[in-house]
Design brief:
Catalyzes the conversion of D-ribulose 5-phosphate to formate and 3,4-dihydroxy-2-butanone 4-phosphate. By secondary structure, the protein is an alpha+beta fold. Helices cover 26% and strands 29% of the residues. The strands form 5 sheets. It has a 6-stranded antiparallel barrel with strand order 1-2-5-4-3-6. A 6-stranded antiparallel beta barrel has the order 7-8-11-10-9-12. A 5-stranded mixed β-sheet has the order 13-21-14-15-20, sandwiched between helices. A hairpin with a 2-residue loop joins strand 3 and strand 4. Helix 7 crosses helix 9. The longest helix is centred in the middle third of the chain and has 13 residues.
Length: 406
């Protein structure tokens, strides 16, 4: 048994079909027995007190199930000697039994830390639990986020310094071993996965949600002034962050402008725009049938109308049941869109989705929607949206979910 707490980084000296030799002074000076190399538990066949090199036995099974199938002399590997009774558990219980080989799909530098995104085989995903433990190349790590087909782990400076994980880049393969408890629970015969799912659903959450329960959470989020992300896979192929207009705070508008980075617009039920005498912008409109109306500012404002506080105040006034035409200057800096009278049944756009969500949350039919743009200027797609939703703590729903449950 190991603990995923790496004692040294060794260097592969030689490897053939049934042996691997690694320069690892600490481990080579230890007692013969087993050793964990990049998360693979192996039997030591020879230690070299004089050469700093240990040799361990490889089998065809081990090579087939791990990255040791392609290991080469010169590769640096994480080395851990087995636990003795009474040793501190520096990480978590690691068996050295690799369950799957995953692929590093993305590496994000985050100040002095680094985030690895790893795509495991589909069969392994149920064993990856947010905030649970996982051994990656033998290193005990906490799962930061789980997205549809991948998960992330955050590497703090101490881990980057003490392990060979610092050398990983996109495309590299890694050995994965799930947390022992998760592995055991998943094998329990009476479907504990469902029970765990129910517990998780009752917790504060973010990321992909669906079904009636997901919808309830999303509506609760909106009515408390929070945001929800809506993915439209088929029509525009874009995802929007939406807020309820009546609850819009200045910091929410700042978030849209500085992090979400798309074009914030204000979907309204058509009767609201009629009442406020805010007319459509003439022209054939965009290629998806969105209905932009004349942009407005609050007539009582004293600035340019551009600040987050002023734009949020303009949106809140648009949502106010007692607002009238004279409350707004035309043109301004807040861009209303008219939803179709038949709502989502007539058109499955973000405009209609925003209005429908506000109404279902018991709020006036005015909201804000803003497309999620990646930091490189491209529009966020499904995987980017799932990552963003987890980062920002937002529930992510499909337009189709809304059509089914609103
Ligand atoms: O602001 C927009 C277009 O100008 C956005 O695309 C927004 O998502 C609303 O449009 P739609 O209802 O077509 O999804």
């Amino acid at each position: 048994m190991f603990t995923g707490h790496i004692q040294e980084i060794g260097t592969v000296i030689a490897v053939d079909h049934d042996r691997i030799a690694v320069r690892a002074p600490k481990a080579a000076a230890g007692t013969p027995g087993s050793i964990c190399l990049n998360g693979v538990g192996l039997m030591i066949v020879q230690t070299g007190h004089e050469t700093d090199v240990l040799e361990a036995r490889l089998t065809a099974e081990t090579r087939r199930r791990s990255t040791l199938d392609q290991i080469r002399p010169g590769t640096r590997v994480n080395v851990e000697a087995p636990l003795a009774l009474g040793d501190p558990l520096g990480g978590h219980l690691v068996q050295g039994a690799v369950d799957a080989v995953g692929k590093v799909v993305r590496v994000d530098d985050e100040g002095t830390s680094r985030r690895l995104w790893i795509k495991p085989p589909d069969r392994f995903l149920p064993l990856v639990v947010p905030k649970g433990q996982i051994a990656v190349d033998g290193v005990s790590l906490t799962v930061a986020e789980v997205s549809r087909d991948r998960f992330s782990v955050a590497l703090i400076p101490a881990t980057l310094q003490a392990t060979a994980l610092a050398e990983l880049s996109a495309g590299d393969r890694v050995n994965l071993e799930p947390d022992l408890l998760t592995r055991l629970v998943r094998r329990w015969p009476s479907d504990p996965g469902r029970a765990v799912g129910q517990v998780v659903a009752a917790l504060p959450w973010a990321g992909r949600v669906s079904g009636g329960q997901g919808m309830q959470k999303a509506l609760a989020q909106l009515s408390s002034g929070g945001a929800v992300m809506i993915w439209d896979p088929d029509r525009e192929g874009e995802g929007d962050v939406i807020f309820a207009g009546a609850r819009l705070r200045p910091e929410a508008f700042t978030f849209l402008l500085t992090q979400v980075c798309g074009h914030p617009t204000v979907p309204c039920a058509p009767e609201i725009l009629d009442r406020l005498e805010i007319g459509p912008i003439p022209g054939p409109g965009d290629r998806h049938g969105t209905r932009p109306h004349v942009p407005v500012d609050l007539a009582t404002g004293t600035g340019t109308g551009v600040s987050a506080a002023e734009r949020a105040a303009t949106v809140r006034r648009l949502a106010h049941p007692e607002a009238g035409p004279a409350d707004f200057l035309r043109p301004g800096h807040v861009f209303p869109l008219a939803a179709r009278p038949g709502g989502l049944a007539e058109r499955a756009g973000h405009t209609e989705a925003t209005v429908a969500m506000c109404m279902a949350a018991g709020l006036p039919p005015v909201g804000v929607c803003c497309e999620v743009m990646n930091p490189d200027g491209t529009m966020a797609k499904a995987a980017d949206l799932e990552i963003a939703a987890l980062r920002w703590g937002l529930p992510l729903l499909d337009v189709d979910d809304l059509r089914k449950h609103l």
